[in-house]
Amino acid sequence: MQHLVVERGLAANTVESYRRDLSRYESALAGRGKDRLADVKPSDLAEFLASLREGDAEHEPLAVSSAARAVIAVRGLHAFAVAQGLAGADPAREVAPPTPPKRLPKAIAVSEVERVLDASGPGPDDIYAGPRVLRDRALLEFLYGTGARISEATGLDIDELRLDEDPVVRLAGKGGKQRVVPVGSYAVRALEAYLVRARPALAAASRRVSVSPAVFLNARGGRLTRQGAWGILHAAAGRAAVADVSPHTLRHSFATHMLDGGADIRVVQELLGHASVATTQVYTLITVDRLREVYASSHPRALG
Q: Which of 81, 93, 143, 213 meets the CB 3.0–4.6 Å disulfide criterion with 86?
């Protein structure tokens, strides 16, 4: 666990997932009488993988994606053990994680995004808007305008945001990898209204001596949590009558709408902070469907 945190720089949520998966693996090995990694055989790995998919008396069957994550954690453990001289061979080397079915990211139409944004609170020109609704509008405009993850938005500090002639934000993504992303004009206006007219009032509610450096604050003047941000999005989507909105919906919609608008996939990769363009390519499947729709409805000889 220390290696994952210190040397690999994995996010806290990822490390906690590894911890749960490896704890289950340790219990499974103990049930098979294995108390040393050097004694583990490939058959033990195969049995563990089968138990993940089938479940047992203490665990529900895991989805393919969750089972794959557990296998990746186990492979990492055995590779680490060999590198540290704790085992002479790696029994997990030939055990490949199950391949999850390719699922298209959930994206909503531009008109639906606009409805969600409008439902989050009044625009920045409304002089009667309260601090919390200005914050909510700024948060969702920021998420859609930059493609940031909710965790990146809630982790954002004031000194990482620049709203001058060339508005940009420095985001800290997975593994601590940083990237600089432009901020669109709608998000800039919403953020300026929030920072000037709302954030000071929220910060004044804090009982701490020092004010939180976070951009987005909760009603008590502390940093807005991921759960709080998700609640804001969920409430706005409910008021807008837009179904199946998840924490990643605005990020997926950002990527899809960028590609629909003609953006190069490499640019979208950089904006999203994906380490590999292969991760970003899943969005092209959505835009191909969109191209088929436009072609079918527009070309005079597309349909018989």
A: 81
Q: What are the structure tokens assigned to 55, written together?
A: 């479940």
Q: Which of 32, 106, 170, 174 is catalytic?
A: 174
Q: Is 248 a catalytic site residue?
A: yes
The position carrying tokens 């693996």 is: 25
The one catalytic residue among 75, 78, 135, 251: 251
Told to judge if 149 belongs to the known catalytic residues of this protein, a careful annotator would answer yes
Active site includes 174?
yes
Cα dihedral 80/82/85/86 (nearest 10): 80
pLDDT at 152 > cutoff 70: yes
pLDDT band at 139 (very low <50, low <70, confident <90, very high): very high
Please identify which of the residues 137, 149, 199, 252 carries the catalytic annotation.
149
CA distances for 111 relative to 93, 106, 217, 262, 272, angstroms: 48, 15, 28, 18, 22
Query: Quick check: 245 and 169 in contact, CB under 8 A?
Result: no
